[in-house]
Amino acid sequence: MKGKFITFEGCEGVGKSTQIRLLQAYMDERGIEYYMTREPGGSSISEQIRAVILDGKNAEMTDECEALLYSASRVQLLSEVIKPRLDAGELVFCDRYVDSSLAYQGYARGLGVEFVERINDYALREFTPDLTVFLDLDPSKAFMRKGGADKTDRLEQSGMSFHEKVYKGYKELSKKYANRYLVIDASGSKMQTHHKIISALKEKGVF
């Protein structure tokens, strides 16, 4: 029996990492078996690619190079980690996935959705998520809540207009893929958001 593949998406500072930690604690307390990974990263090679992508010193990186590096990291993670676990019937969660590339590089960088879909054909064709949890919060509010952008993170330093485009991209994706998107209002407290996520996953039969 094939496992379930669930991804988490959202703009910078939306509280995604916090929500993933709370979800893990919830599942651990109840003995729910799962595997958690992240993008870019999740395997030795993919983590090395992640370091290159996010290094604030790589300001001269072209948009196309960035998109292709994300795609390369993704293929490695899928082949090495995610596919074997799904084939074994496991419940797999991933912090970011191909929707991040569509929102960040396709919409915000202006490379176009078609270009990003083309270089991610393997991921989209063979490994479409069963569900995507999208934490919905405007980036201006998200950055205010986290106290500003991280000066060592190249993507966070891209400027508010860039992050507004990312947000608009996600909103478009949530409409296009409404059948798999779980849009979670993340404007409340972290526990309020956590309870919304748990309720949504229960409703979809994950737990």
Account of the protein in words:
This protein has 207 residues and is α/β, with parallel strands linked by helices. It is built from 9 helices and 5 strands. The chain has helices at residues 16-29, 44-54, 63-87, 98-108, 113-119, 121-126, 139-146, 160-176, 190-203; strands spanning 4-10, 35-38, 91-95, 131-136, 181-185. A 5-stranded parallel beta sheet has the order 2-3-1-4-5, sandwiched between helices. α2 packs antiparallel against α3 and α4 packs across α8. The protein is globular and about 45 Å long. It starts with a strand and ends with a helix.
Brief overview:
The protein has 207 residues and is of the alpha/beta class. 55% of the residues lie in helices and 13% in strands. It has a 5-stranded parallel sheet, with helices on both faces.
> If you compute it from the alpha carbons, what radius of gyration comes out, rounded to the nearest whole angstrom?
16 Å
Q: Total strand count, please?
A: 5
What is the structural class? alpha/beta
Which range does the strand content fall in? 5-15%
Question: How are the SSEs ordered, and which strands pair?
Answer:
Blueprint: E1 4-10, H1 16-29, E2 35-38, H2 44-54, H3 63-87, E3 91-95, H4 98-108, H5 113-119, H6 121-126, E4 131-136, H7 139-146, H8 160-176, E5 181-185, H9 190-203
Parallel strand pairs: 1-3, 1-4, 2-3, 4-5
Helix pairs in contact: 1-9, 2-3, 4-5, 4-8
